[in-house]
């Protein structure tokens, strides 16, 4: 296997935010407090680009909603995201992945077997920074997630 491509098809809808004059990149740009370039407007979910990352997955949306609720009540709580497991549920090649899978400086150690694949992305210090597992090897994902350096 030469490559694993996750094409989830989600793209932030930013037309309304653009018309409102908000800063847009790949999504509506927000800081760790989910505040946009307009101090009175917040964003979360599929449209938000949080500190440079678009995270159109359930866990970051749920955590963002809790932080936003606190901040709207007057707290000053930053969003702190843990290492998260992304599950891609396709019948032909189900995958679990986590970490900084798009980093260009990682060395990938790929082990393919009949039961599936385990690909580990390690940095120059041999720290696990990302992984992708497929099929029957997906049961290894939680163990890898615990050792992921973020």
From TrEMBL:
A GO MF label: oxidoreductase activity
Domain Rubredoxin binding: 79-148
Top enzyme class: oxidoreductase
Keywords: Cytoplasm, FAD, Flavoprotein, NAD, Oxidoreductase
Keyword DNA-binding annotated: no
Domain FAD/NAD(P)-binding per the UniProt entry, residue ranges: 2-48
Location(s), subcellular: Cytoplasm
EC number: 1.18.1.-
Predominant localisation class: cytoplasm
GO cellular component, one term: cytoplasm
Cofactor needs: FAD
Pfam families, sorted: Pyr_redox_2, Rbx_binding
Chain coiled-coil ranges: none
Similarity field: Belongs to the FAD-dependent oxidoreductase family.
Protein name according to UniProt: Nitric oxide reductase FlRd-NAD(+) reductase
Organism, scientific name: Escherichia coli
């Amino acid at each position: 296997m030469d490559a694993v491509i996750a094409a989830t098809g989600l793209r932030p809808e930013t037309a309304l935010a653009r018309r409102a004059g908000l800063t847009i990149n790949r999504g509506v740009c927000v800081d760790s407090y989910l505040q946009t370039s307009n101090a009175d407007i917040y964003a979360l979910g599929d449209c938000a680009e949080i500190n440079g990352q678009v995270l159109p997955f359930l866990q970051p949306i749920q955590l963002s909603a809790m932080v936003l609720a606190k901040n709207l009540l007057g707290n000053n709580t930053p969003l702190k995201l843990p290492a998260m497991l992304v599950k891609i549920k396709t019948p032909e090649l189900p995958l679990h992945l986590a970490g900084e899978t798009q980093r260009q400086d990682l060395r990938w150690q790929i082990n393919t077997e009949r039961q599936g694949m385990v690909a580990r992305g390690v940095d120059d210090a041999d720290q696990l920074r990302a992984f992708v597992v497929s099929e029957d090897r997906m049961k290894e994902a939680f163990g890898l997630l615990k050792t992921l350096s973020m």
